[in-house]
Specification:
By secondary structure, this protein is an alpha/beta fold. The protein folds into three domains: 3-149, 3-Layer(aba) Sandwich (Rossmann fold), CATH 3.40.50.300; 153-217; 218-253. Helices cover 47% and strands 12% of the residues. It has 13 helices and seven strands. A five-stranded parallel beta sheet has the order 2-3-6-1-7, with helices on one face. α1 (3-16) packs across α2 (33-43). The model has no long low-confidence stretch (mean pLDDT 90).
């Protein structure tokens, strides 16, 4: 099993047992962050609440209050979670002060009373945050627990696909197609994509037609992959420093 997924399993165990206050999972879509998390919580009968939408900091506060007795709350790629007020609430959720986690929302309006909410409460759950991309302003939250980056290069992805193909019902012919036609420049290459293509093949469709549209290659990465620095610089007009920085970024070193 990939080392990062071993760490993920151990981290899910740690947060479920109360040994981590917050676990942050960051990585491209479709690489089983949510699937593995919810499977672990369900398989181990962990009392949890799953959130993938809310509207305002107040509704976030209400969710925290109403589910504060859960063992774990999972927030999955919710769009407004970068709001500074929400970050402030999460900081309170993810650190013990005098052996308690106290979350507060002070307001001069009657809105808290109207919704039956206190100005502060003790928060007993631990938090899992799942992001497809890095969120700015989260250093103070990350510092309170553990962040795992689940971004993989092409070769690592191939190994992961092999490891999960039976469990995820990935068709062998689909996997062979990926090995023959994809590379580091291929976008949207994930476990989820392979599952979709396998399901289409099972229903009698020519999955290759769909794959050609779904698994496009990013020109910038193809140039970095196929050209040496001099040819790349002549093609793009960019510097050697940029060339090697981008190669590192895309896992081409």
């Amino acid at each position: 099993m990939n080392k990062k997924y071993i760490l993920l399993n151990e981290s899910l165990k740690a947060i479920s047992e109360g040994n981590l206050n917050v676990l942050i999972l960051v990585g491209e879509a479709g690489m089983s962050k949510t699937f593995n998390t919810l499977n672990f919580l369900n398989d181990n009968s962990i009392k949890h609440f799953y959130v993938n939408s809310y509207s305002t900091p107040l509704s976030f506060y209400e969710l925290l209050y109403k589910n504060s007795d859960k063992e774990v709350i999972v927030f999955d790629d919710v769009s407004s979670i970068g709001n500074p007020l929400i970050v402030s609430l999460l900081k309170s959720c993810c650190w013990n002060s005098n052996k308690k986690k106290i979350v507060s929302y002070y307001s001069t309006s009657k809105v808290l009373a109207e919704r039956g909410l206190p100005e502060s409460f003790e928060f007993n759950a631990n938090v899992i945050l799942i992001f497809n991309e890095e969120i700015k302003g989260y250093a103070s939250v990350i510092n309170r627990g553990l962040k795992i980056s689940l971004n993989f290069n092409f070769l690592d992805k191939l190994k992961i696909f092999e490891e999960v193909k039976e469990k995820a019902n990935i068709d062998e012919e689909v996997l062979d197609y990926i090995k023959e036609n994809c590379n580091e420049a291929t976008q949207n290459l994930s476990v989820r994509t392979l599952v979709i293509l396998s399901q289409l093949k099972e229903k009698g469709y020519d999955f290759r037609l769909f794959a050609e549209e779904m698994l496009v290659k990013k020109e910038e990465i193809e140039l970095l992959r196929d050209l040496n620095y001099k040819d790349w610089s002549k093609e793009t007009g960019k510097s050697m420093k940029t060339y090697y920085r981008l190669r590192k970024k895309y896992g081409l070193n």
